[in-house]
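Hello,

Our lab assistant flagged a job as stuck in the queue for most of the afternoon. It eventually completed. Since we weren't sure the result was trustworthy after the delay, we are filing this so someone can double-check. Below is the sequence as submitted and the structure that was eventually returned. Let us know if re-running is recommended.
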Amino acid sequence: MNVLDLSRWQFGITTVYHFLMVPLTIGLSLLVAAMQTAWVRTGDRKYLAMTKFWGKLLLINFAMGVVTGIVQEFQFGMNWSAYSRFVGDVFGAPLAMEGLAAFFVESTFLGLWIFGWDRLSKKAHLACAWAFSLATMLSAYFILAANSWMQHPVGTIISDEGRPQLVSIGEVLTNNTTLAAFPHVIFGAFAVAAAFLVGIACWHLWKRSDEEPVWRASVKLGAWVGIVSFVGLAITGDFQGKLMFQQQPMKMAAAEALCHTEEPAAFSIFAVGDVSRADCESVKSITVPALLSFLAHNDFSSEVKGVQDLVTEYQAKYGENYPVDERLGELSGQPIDYVPMLPVTYWGFRLMIGFGAVSALVGAMALWLVRGGRRAPTGKWFPRLMLLSIATPFLGNSFGWIFTEMGRQPFVVAPNPTGVDGVWMFTASAVSANTVGEVLTSVTVLTLLYGVLAVVEVFLLKKYVAGGVAGVMPPVKPKTGDGKDKDSDDKSDDDDDVLAFAY
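-- returned structure --
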């Protein structure tokens, strides 16, 4: 492997690992805030128990997300310094906003929420929960604005030094790619949190754990959120796909293994054969006639360009060969391969959709099985299926991002078809001048470190999941015949006792 391949592997490994924590934090923070709102409004102890239990798991996940996310910032300087110099005038603005306006707000209100149980009023404490949860969404928005600029550069001109220069932060923050990606990512985060609730709550119901109303309410909330999230993902995904056909037609052609232009174009459900070949000679697909034309342009008769025709267009616009530059290493002066890895884009696109659908179906099944106060099935298949289903939206999110990022290759900054000429960059030109040994060492160390962190997180989550409500709530005091606490003469009520139990 060369420096470019190793750098891409490192960024891929660390980013996919980090993104396992991100959607769970976003989705679960909103759901925990909703649980606490239900408690404040109704006074029902069930909702307080839900807030405490799921809030504990949220904190573990958030802590791991912070630790793994720090590495992402440093990698731009470590392995992608040429990229950082090229996009720094633009890319730095949304990242700075994320750090200052979002992360600081997020951390501040999370701290107040953790330590404010016995120090703040109920409503002030609840406001902290909502401020934290909304700040996680704001943080996600700024990150997506930065990523969307890489997918579809706007709001810039080319400076005299040949680098993009920011002229409108408003255009960057209102990029139509960002506006399409943000709701899609948020629905994906809710799908992850929903499956997390359903899987763990169903396991507790199967074990006949104490606090059964807590687990039933968690299953109901998670299942409905998961079903609604899948519908939201389908709608926002359709809108995103139509934008991609306009902005990155090669990515969408690769997602369909559409090697030749078709009018109308059929949608491939499943392919048999070697989809890695750009001529698709050995590929046989099960297709839905004209559906791809509708997904691309909202009609059943329009033309959709295939990989081979798009390669010709890209060669005419961006060149047939890489520049002769020693920094490009073995790629210097070599032909440019404009076709993404077809097996990754084709199957990644389908696995993204498939895992999302499975997650929603399992949630609906759980809702049906425990409806109306019914006991959870006693067979071992039930908890195993529910716990395994937790992984499905995580996998769907991961495959979606792998498709999104690898589908724009060979560009790290994809060209805007209607934007300023010159605002694009090949991935091969973005890498730092490191040695193979240096990058291999960092890949190995980070992979091993992240493996250790994964063990720590699973251990902590397993410990507190097994502890159930009893691990986060004070015991309910027994009552005397007159309804008063048997061992207390003070005037504080149960809510005050519960509030005093801090994390």
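-- support follow-up --
The delay was a queue issue, not a problem with the job. The result is valid. The first helix runs from residue 3 to 42. The chain is about 65% helix and 5% strand.
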